[in-house]
Amino acid sequence: MRTADSTIGIYVHVPFCVRRCPYCAFYSLEGVAPELLREYPELLLRELELRKNTWQGQRVGSIFFGGGTPSLLNPLDVKRLMQAFRAEFQVDSAAEITLEANPGTVDEQRLADLCAAGINRLSLGVQALNDQRLIFLGRLHNREQALEALRFAKTAGFLKVSVDLMVGTPLETTDTWDREFAILLEYQPDGISFYNLTLEEGTRLARRAQSGEKVFLPHDEAVDLLLHFADRMKAAGYRHYEVSNWALPGAESRHNKHYWNRGHYLGLGPSAHSFSGKRREWNLPTLKLYSKALKEGMLPPNQSENLGIEETRSEWVYLNLRQDEGLNLVHFKKKFGSWPQYWKAMLESISAQGLGSFNGEIFSPNDSGLLLADEIAARLLG
Ligand code: SF4
Is this prediction's pTM over 0.70? Predict the structure, then answer.
């Protein structure tokens, strides 16, 4: 049965960005105050110290520095945090250690130093290889800087380099993307993620949309574009292993798969989530509150929820349908006792609509099915 392995994942949130991108609703502080950046690793170590009784000694299969902009961290601080993780946990020798990097914040030396600090997978926020679109997305970098970062990342010594792209601005056509794509593939990234531009409440992009500006490709055109990418990606040897994620065989993100298979994880930093199988908790949402709690010697979790059988079942269905391995009814039965009889007819009908294949036991979504994974799950769960 496909289950999470027995290791845990560690997520480290780094809530700083040089400048806020107009579409982004993640928690981060805009502008980089050097004293806050210097103090932040101390806070993370303090949180680790307070939490270690619960998690100490566990085997760690992956660590992920996400943000925000983790590439703003001093590589020496990354090294110090890695030493602390190794001291408190059994970090697998083959653990995947990822850091998200913004191309506008790295140079050759910084990437080499991050690699030397223990990072073995770099996730590069390229977003586009077109200057007009990078300006629209409010990114720090231009096309040339993105390519330079990619070049440096490939030579720095990381085991894996993956690239994030943003799809769905009004400036995109298959022709413009094909040209960018051909260049990107010359660098052979191990993974490529396509994220759909979405309108998040309270963002500058949402305000621009409210004032009548066209900020999106029409939905149908965005779907056509994603399906066009799917053909190009498959032709280049990549596997569509999750809704937004593609990888060369064997280069799938271990950390992300751990989340999708409901593995346990410890989250450090403001707004970071932790999950221990039945209980999910999340930290205080801002750096100010997080820092105040820790300085008063208190753990920073803000809220938590206990997951009952219904939530667990529903989460399991959603997460499995978001992966190409799909929904396995035998596994579902082993875990939850039985599955609703009407599912078989429903999965046959979904397959007949061209969204995947069903052999009576496993429903495997195809590219179109993965793009509609949440809708399929909602149909099954009524
Ligand atoms: S760099 Fe990333 S986290 Fe920071 S504002 Fe932009 S999209 Fe959000």
Answer: yes
